[in-house]
Amino acid sequence: MDDKYRVLREIIELCLSLDLTACATYHQFASQCKILSLAFEWQLRSKEEKKHILFWEKALALSKRQQLPLVFENPLEIRGKLKKIQKTINRMFPKLKVYNAPAEELSFAFFIENYMLDPVFMTMFHAYRFIDGTIEDEYEAHLLAFMDMAKNYRSQLDSLNIELFNETLHDLYVSNRALLRDAMHDSLTGLYNRRGFFDNAGLLLSLAERKKLDVAVIIIDFDDFKGINDTFGHQAGDDALKGSAAMITSVLRASCLSARYGGDEFIVLADIDNEESLKLICERIRETVDRESKKTFGTCFTVSLGAAAGGIDREREISLAEIICKADKKLFEAKKNGGNCWVI
């Protein structure tokens, strides 16, 4: 679990570094631009980037305390992508230089804004909006202001590329926003995916807080999923995932939230009265998969479960992240105990 948080911290550090580059670049453009009104616009863009920087600094502090939800299924891939973005910017523009014309400044700025439209940034702005409830609106306002600036000064900048860049940037933003909004379900199992889980957890957390109930997180992992794929083929592995999803949801209350957490892991969020009710849920899931897998697939497979519970305060998402962290550690214990068991 600590490795996952280390990678998340590195992802946030890369996001912070890229926004620091954008802020410094726009500040320099403001100081060297020969069109005074445009220089003022660059100064505004720099101030807007400072708000993004503040968001990343707060997120970084929370990640160091393991108080942020792990929203990415493939964090190593995300980290690699951001490193490539950073390397590209450093290679193309090894250091801030004096540009000869405002059109050159704007062209460089388009490169930066294009990279900052990567779904990685939009995903974290959305998932971690509890840090700053205005961050998504602020990011959209920043982008729209940037495009308006390019449009208003198009004739003065005398560059046909400006209009093309502007249209491309706008279309990319609209497309990515729609894609992230719609991509909340896992296509294989029909359950929520990791993003859908965190998007929908708020209502259950709010209800639990009002009813003064604890919430429990259960993380469920196949004991030998690779063995299923190697022995019976990947189609059998897909069937096992779909079947397990159905088995898990069949023993849960309608009020529980379940999702495919990534790979062969599932996650459940439930409000509970006491630890005994949590034990009952865990055993029902374990026993159902153990019993029904042989009937359904002709071969027995098992799962391990790690669970944790706790109260929810006003910082709901931070509370949830802490409970998930504890449940993940309990899952590790269950695996060490030989599997086909649960640990609370």
Q: Could you provide a short overview of the structure?
A:
With 344 residues, this protein is an alpha+beta fold. The protein is built from 13 helices and five strands. It has two domains: 181 residues, Up-down Bundle (Ferritin); 150 residues, Reverse transcriptase/Diguanylate cyclase domain (Alpha-Beta Plaits, 2-Layer Sandwich).
Written account of the structure:
By secondary structure, this protein is of the alpha+beta class. It folds into two domains: 2-182, Ferritin, CATH 1.20.1260.10; 194-343, Alpha-Beta Plaits. The protein has 13 helices and five strands. The model has no long low-confidence stretch (mean pLDDT 88).
Bulk shape:
elongated
Largest sheet: 5 strands, mixed
CATH superfamily of the largest domain: Ferritin, core subunit, four-helix bundle
Strand content: 5-15%
The CATH class of the largest domain is Mainly Alpha
Mean pLDDT: 88
Distance between the termini: 16 Å
Helix/strand order, N-terminal first: HHHHHHHHHEHHEEHEHE
The SS-based structural class is alpha+beta
Give the tally of β-strands. Answer: 5
